[in-house]
């Protein structure tokens, strides 16, 4: 089991998540996940889709709510929104499965999987290998490992488990210290979260400060607080390959159309 450190909201999320995992383990054994058809499918590669010249590099997130904003949009379906994102050129999708803090559902990811043929990130607070095996069984292609809530040993172990299942691994860091202690061989991508998870302040400067410290063999992803198409040009120029965007699209009645308009403006 991973150890926790860090900020207040993360403390609350981790505490709740550990209880949730213990309950899930008692309810659904791992052997059940291994029986699912989705568990045996071949995953889409994050690297391939993010680097595809036909895609935008955007990882578009289905996010109903968040601790920083409360409800963002609870009037839309995961199937419709994620299909709209894929039509708008998303390289990958991100679907929150945490219900307590983000209003997400496992069923949202199942719906997104059914509707799309691009990689899907299971956006979760992973603290246990159980959640990684579950991610594969519900149709995810990518898992997120958050440096702020995991030890370097847990990150290396979880990344290795994910790779053995054919999943891509995105490590999320917020500062240089987290980056230096957490990087390991089995990662595919390193994401810089521009949101400070302690006070929710957002600054793109975190991305610019860290981009050159991320080893070049990993995809470089800038995460959170992106709302201006011009920012994508600047982040690309700085060396980023991918851009994780949630709220800017989700706060609109039609997130897929919002993404289409955004993409049209990137190179306008
Ligand atoms: O979004 C939050 O309020 C939040 C709070 C605590 C932990 C994580 C949180 N967000 C997770 C994310 O990483 C974002 O959903 C993702 O990067 C997209 O960000 P945005 O485009 O700003 O919605």
Automatic annotation (TrEMBL):
Keywords: Amino-acid biosynthesis, Aromatic amino acid biosynthesis, Decarboxylase, Lyase, Tryptophan biosynthesis
Keyword Magnesium belongs to the record: no
Stored PANTHER family: INDOLE-3-GLYCEROL-PHOSPHATE SYNTHASE (PTHR22854:SF2), TRYPTOPHAN BIOSYNTHESIS PROTEIN (PTHR22854)
Similarity field: Belongs to the TrpC family.
InterPro entries xref list: Aldolase_TIM, Indole-3-glycerol_P_synth, Indole-3-glycerol_P_synth_dom, Indole-3-GlycerolPSynthase_CS, RibuloseP-bd_barrel
Pathway recorded for this protein: Amino-acid biosynthesis; L-tryptophan biosynthesis; L-tryptophan from chorismate: step 4/5
Domain Indole-3-glycerol phosphate synthase span(s) in chain numbering: 10-261
Lineage: Bacteria, Pseudomonadati, Bacteroidota, Sphingobacteriia, Sphingobacteriales
Keyword Amino-acid biosynthesis in annotation: yes
Catalytic activity: 1-(2-carboxyphenylamino)-1-deoxy-D-ribulose 5-phosphate + H(+) = (1S,2R)-1-C-(indol-3-yl)glycerol 3-phosphate + CO2 + H2O
HAMAP family, sorted: IGPS_B
EC number: 4.1.1.48
Organism: Paradesertivirga mongoliensis
Name of the protein described by the UniProt record: Indole-3-glycerol phosphate synthase
GO molecular function terms listed in the Swiss-Prot or TrEMBL record: indole-3-glycerol-phosphate synthase activity
């Amino acid at each position: 089991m991973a150890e926790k450190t860090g900020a207040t909201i993360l403390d609350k999320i981790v505490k709740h998540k550990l209880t949730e995992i213990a309950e899930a383990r008692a309810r659904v054994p791992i052997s059940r996940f291994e029986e699912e058809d989705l568990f045996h499918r071949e995953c889409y590669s994050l690297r391939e889709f993010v680097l595809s010249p036909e895609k935008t590099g955007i990882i578009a997130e289905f996010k109903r709510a968040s601790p920083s904003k409360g409800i963002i949009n609870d009037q839309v379906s995961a199937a419709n929104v994620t299909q709209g994102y894929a039509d708008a050129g998303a390289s990958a999708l991100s679907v929150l499965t945490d219900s307590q803090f983000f209003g997400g559902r496992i069923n949202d990811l199942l719906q997104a999987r059914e509707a799309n043929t691009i990689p899907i990130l299971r956006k979760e607070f992973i603290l246990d290998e159980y959640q990684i095996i579950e991610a594969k069984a519900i149709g995810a292609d990518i898992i997120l490992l958050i440096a702020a809530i995991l030890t370097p040993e847990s990150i290396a172990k979880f990344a290795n488990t994910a790779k053995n299942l054919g999943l891509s691994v995105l490590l999320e860091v917020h500062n240089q210290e987290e980056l230096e202690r957490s990087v390991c061989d089995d990662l595919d991508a390193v994401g810089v979260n521009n949101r400070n998870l302690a006070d929710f302040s957002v600054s793109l400067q975190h991305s610019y400060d860290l981009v050159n410290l991320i080893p070049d063999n990993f995809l470089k992803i800038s995460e959170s607080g992106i709302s201006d198409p011009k920012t994508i040009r600047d982040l690309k120029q700085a060396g980023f390959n991918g851009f994780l965007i949630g709220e800017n699209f989700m706060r609109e009645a039609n997130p897929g159309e919002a993404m289409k308009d955004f993409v049209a403006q990137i190179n306008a």
